[in-house]
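Running low. Any example?
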Amino acid sequence: MADFGHELWFGAFLTPDAAGHHRIVRQAVLADEIGLDIIGIQDHPYLPAFLDTWTLLSTLAGRTERVRLFPDVVNLPLRPPAVLARAAASLDILSGGRVELGLGSGAFWDGIAAMGGPRRSPGEAVDALEEAIAVLRALWTPGDEGVRLDGRHYWLEGARPGPFPPHPIGLWLGAYKRRMLELTGRLGDGWVPSSGYAAPGELGAMSATLDAAAERAGRDPAGIRRVYNIEGRFSGAAGRGFLDGPPALWAEQLTELALRHGMSVFVLAVDDDRDLKVFAEEVAPAVREAVSRERARGPREDAGGPIEVAGAAPARAVLDEATRPRLPKRDIAALPRRQQANGRRLVLIHDHLRQELAQIRDALEQVAAGRSDAAALRSMINELTLRQNYWTLGTFCASYCRLLTTHHTIEDEHMFPMLAAAQESLAPVVARLEQEHEVIAGVLTELDAALVAMIEDPDRLDGVREQVDLLSDVLLSHLRYEEEELVEPIARLDLDI
């Protein structure tokens, strides 16, 4: 757990939305022009709303001059490693040595199987990735003889190596659990976690597992690049969590990650030109300057101490919007009015939740102004739909009112399964919405605890305000996502919700 002295890179994680293909190319060119170092593109071949990652990377390579490119990360079960080796080497040649290769063992197995790919257990997926690494490196190593490898998942029977990349392509592994972290330590050139799945406070334990595996394999952990996919919000004042505030706060938190965990590549999930520019022109230079200054001072005395990132939010309170599955959008206006109205019923239900959330915020301000009392606020929240509809498949509140119980049952037990059964491609969206219900459940639990604390000590009102702000951000984002992905399918499939 230390700074490994790598050159710092800053990059953009661009969503390969087919409907926004002009924006993606424009932002990649912008990233190249304003001095960002790398562009990452997620790889979900089973999502028809997404452009093919490798085709997109090739296009971006032709439109840019200096920025590095990498799949973040490749869905290995749908990309045979022997073909991937030739594709990556070819793009590295054509781009002038600007390609790195992020590798993932696989996820969303229903989608993979639907595309004709294998359905693997977690153990099989790790074993397959290890075999794939051997294939990739064998085909990038010059030799006169054909390569023969005998694996359970991948093998070569005399394939000739080549073409050869003009620079050593890094194999960066997306890893979170022990076996994947150990594989990264033994064989990987880089490690790629994402803040939505590995919060800053979790990086220390993961790094320790990775470093120990590297040392057992006789490798120097410093040789493994640490790549962090991040998301955040630029605002005028410091907010509640990680990367929530002005650029100076971002710079402080990323500097800490570089110096304590050796993170040296920060890839920001971004779809806004302004945020891209702020990240490149304000955050990146500040981090580089701060890290350079600290390196000049020598090793930090607290390098081995506890890992605490200022303002870090609990992982459950983070919605990684950049990784949400998206489907192609169809025009609901083309449907009969009756069907349109059926789909938009979901919006009416959500509007009720939004209205009650606004009531909570108004009541909070009344408490702050002395026009009410904390106990009344808590009582009101317990009576509201928002408080009772706890979004966790029905285990929290036995006192649901009839309307909310009906809504909960329809969505979690009826509507979601019905949608997934009627249109298989909706399954990843439904699964993601169910996961986000759990996040919202955790936020509501923390809000309730903050209210209890405020009743005991009125001076703790700010804690309640922070939790209400968090609830607003998370819930409103979730409702928008659900409406964007489900209103049209509900209408088109003519489902009774």
Q: What stands out?
A: The mean pLDDT is 84. The chain is about 50% helix and 10% strand.
